[in-house]
Write a structure and sequence with these properties.
It is a single chain. By secondary structure, this protein is an all-alpha fold. The protein has one domain. It has 5 helices and no strands. The longest helix has 25 residues. The chain is globular, with a radius of gyration of 15 Å.
Length: 109
Amino acid sequence: MLYSLRVPLSPAQSDLSKQGVRLRRINLTPEDKELLISLLAAFEKEYSSFRAWSANLPSPSAQIEAGRQRDELVGRYHTLMMSQLSPDGWSKFMAYVLGERQKMYSPVK
């Protein structure tokens, strides 16, 4: 979900608009929203560097290691969000994440 909420390092207005729509659905306080945007920007910077590094890994074992590093990166930002958002903000963020995951795995009717 972090990936779907982040914007590119040099976002177009359409990127910011899409992010704004998603963030409004979470219904955070202005403080939590500002903090989340800041954390998402930091995540995007690190994730972009990771993607550039991992794009041409030569071996399956290197790709497995890259997957572990990606999971650590995501986990670190998950922990930062949990510790820095207000308890209500964290609860709303997780409700959004779980709702989006459910949409991803629900069969289409």
